[in-house]
Amino acid sequence: MLISSSAFGQFKYETLSTAQGLSQGYIWDIIQCRDGFLWMTTKAGLNRYDGYFFKVYSHDAFF
């Protein structure tokens, strides 16, 4: 996954993967909420990215 931002017409790209905390490498959908978080759905759960870290929300069938 690539994240880009523009500053003065130049783009900066950041590659995000399981090495940075993404729960799984295949992403089904991505949305950005009004708070700025990126939310990604994967087979392994819902991932929230705040620009620094991932928080993974997954289903626990035994909870």
3D architecture notes:
This protein has a four-stranded antiparallel β-sheet with strand order 3-4-5-6, with no helix packed on it. The protein has a two-stranded antiparallel sheet with strand order 1-2. With 63 residues, it is mostly beta strands. It has no helices and six strands. The N and C termini lie far apart (31 Å).
Task: Report the mean per-residue pLDDT as an integer.
Answer: 87
Number of strands: 6
Approximate strand percentage: over 45%
User: Which series of helices and strands comes N to C?
Assistant: EEEEEE
Distance between the termini: 31 Å
Side-by-side strand order of the widest sheet:
3-4-5-6
- Please summarize the sheet with the most strands: 4 strands, antiparallel
The poorly predicted ranges are none
**Structural class, from secondary structure content?**
mainly beta
Number of helical elements: 0
Chain oligomer state: single chain
- Radius of gyration over alpha carbons? 13 Å
Indicate the overall shape: elongated
Q: Please bin the fraction of helical residues.
A: under 10%
Secondary-structure topology with pairs:
Layout: E1 2-7, E2 10-15, E3 27-32, E4 38-42, E5 45-49, E6 54-57
Antiparallel strand pairs: 1-2, 3-4, 4-5, 5-6
